[in-house]
């Protein structure tokens, strides 16, 4: 055999060996790929099952959250309805005072500020307060105060009782609760921060006022027998005594008896408005600015004043968290004037 033939045979054999080796490698690679593919399929199936399980669990959690949210919404709706039932409806207020406004804005759906108007004969009891709490807990505490106030008012003659006596009776109720429940009512969170009571008799031109950390503003522009024409604002601050019963204080609440004049206007409030922080310095709005605002808009109709006070509050608040606020304005029509 010639050298060329031998070389050709060698090359063929070498090529055949390489071909078989490559084929074996390809077969191994294909086998590995098939094995990997089976593993991937198995893992994919496991992932799909896990995903389905997770989706089912997530769906159950979502459904649970929806149910809880609905229950919470139902409870809140019930509290709002209870609030409307216990507080005095604006339509009933209008039957007592034709020109008035009610600016009641809890930060949440409900809050700790409360108010109540009760009429008996020619007298109307007007009360408002702040429990020092917000949200549902504040509302429940406020409703407790409204219920006690209604019970006390039903047991007395509003034409004869003094506003301070109403507050004395409320404090007595707190004392009884403390004795019954066996705990002390000397913690600010457990008692109303402020409470204002007025008994108004427009026919007799009389106003009886008392406050437990609660103030009253009176706008007056009529001074019979004088040449005075300017508008004045008078603020009555009441007593700095809450309804705590364990401090050993037994001083009665002070009653201010005020003779009403033509076109007097009354403003009752809780502390949320003046304590609201805002402005460029993030400062309290303050009593002084509120009095100035009352003076500037005293001659406007009450509903127009409400718009002013609400817009002023929102502008001052800015992006700060809002307080529960309550502001009541009453334009009096004194008989015989």
Description:
The protein is of the alpha+beta class. It has two domains: 85 residues; 245 residues, PPM-type phosphatase domain (Phosphatase 2c, domain 1). It is 46% helix and 20% strand. The chain has six helices and twelve strands. The strands form three sheets. Strands 1-12-9-6-7 form a five-stranded antiparallel beta sheet, sandwiched between helices. Helix 1 runs parallel beside helix 3. It is elongated and about 145 Å long. The protein starts with a helix and ends in a 6-residue tail after the last strand. 29% of the residues are buried.
CATH architecture of the largest domain: 4-Layer Sandwich
Fold-level CATH name of the largest domain = Phosphatase 2c, domain 1
- Give the neighbour order of strands across the main sheet: 1-12-9-6-7
Count of discrete alpha- or pi-helical segments spanning 4 or more residues: 6
Q: What are the secondary-structure elements, in order, as H or E?
A: HHEEEHHEEEEEEEEHHE
Strand content: 15-25%
CATH superfamily of the largest domain: PPM-type phosphatase domain
CATH level 1 name of the largest domain? Alpha Beta
Specify the overall morphology.
Answer: elongated
Roughly how much helix do the residues carry, as a percent range?
40-55%
Low-pLDDT residue spans: 185-189
Overview features:
five-stranded antiparallel sheet, 12 strands, 337 residues, alpha+beta, elongated, 6 helices, single chain, 2 domains, 20% strand, Phosphatase 2c, domain 1
Architecture blueprint of SSEs:
Elements: H1 3-86, H2 90-96, E1 100-105, E2 113-120, E3 123-130, H3 135-154, H4 163-181, E4 194-201, E5 206-212, E6 216-220, E7 232-236, E8 256-259, E9 265-269, E10 277-278, E11 283-284, H5 287-296, H6 302-317, E12 325-331
Helix pairs in contact: 1-3, 3-4
């Amino acid at each position: 055999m010639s050298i060329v033939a031998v070389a050709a045979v060698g090359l063929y054999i070498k090529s055949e060996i390489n071909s078989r080796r490559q084929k074996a490698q390809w077969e191994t690679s294909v086998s590995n790929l098939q094995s990997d593919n089976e593993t991937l399929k198995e893992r994919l199936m496991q992932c799909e099952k896990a995903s389905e399980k997770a989706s089912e669990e997530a769906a159950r959690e979502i459904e649970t959250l929806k149910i809880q949210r609905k229950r919470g919404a139902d409870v809140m709706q019930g509290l709002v309805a209870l609030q409307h039932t216990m507080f005095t409806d604006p339509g009933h207020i209008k039957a007592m005072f034709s020109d008035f406004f009610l600016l009641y804005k809890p930060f949440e759906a409900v809050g700790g500020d409360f108010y109540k108007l009760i009429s008996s004969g020619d007298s109307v009891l007007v009360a408002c307060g702040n429990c020092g709490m917000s949200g549902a807990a504040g509302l429940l505490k406020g409703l407790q105060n409204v219920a006690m106030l209604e019970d006390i008012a039903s047991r007395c003659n509003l034409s004869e009782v003094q506003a301070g006596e109403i507050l004395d009776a409320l404090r007595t109720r707190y004392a009884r609760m403390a004795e019954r429940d066996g705990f002390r009512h000397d913690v600010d969170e457990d008692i109303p921060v402020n409470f204002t009571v007025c008994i108004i008799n427009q026919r007799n031109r009389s106003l009886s006022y008392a406050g437990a950390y609660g103030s009253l503003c009176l706008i007056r522009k009529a001074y019979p027998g004088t040449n005075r024409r300017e508008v004045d604002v008078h603020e009555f601050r009441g007593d700095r005594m809450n309804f705590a019963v364990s401090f050993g204080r037994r001083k009665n609440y002070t009653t201010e008896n005020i003779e009403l004049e033509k076109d007097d206007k009354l403003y009752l409030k809780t502390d949320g408005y003046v304590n609201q922080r805002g402005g460029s310095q993030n400062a309290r709005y303050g009593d002084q600015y509120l009095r100035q605002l009352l003076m500037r808009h005293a001659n406007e109709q009450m509903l127009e004043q409400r718009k002013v006070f609400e817009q002023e509050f929102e502008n001052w608040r800015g992006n700060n968290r809002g307080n529960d606020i309550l502001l009541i304005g009453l334009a009096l029509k004194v008989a015989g004037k």
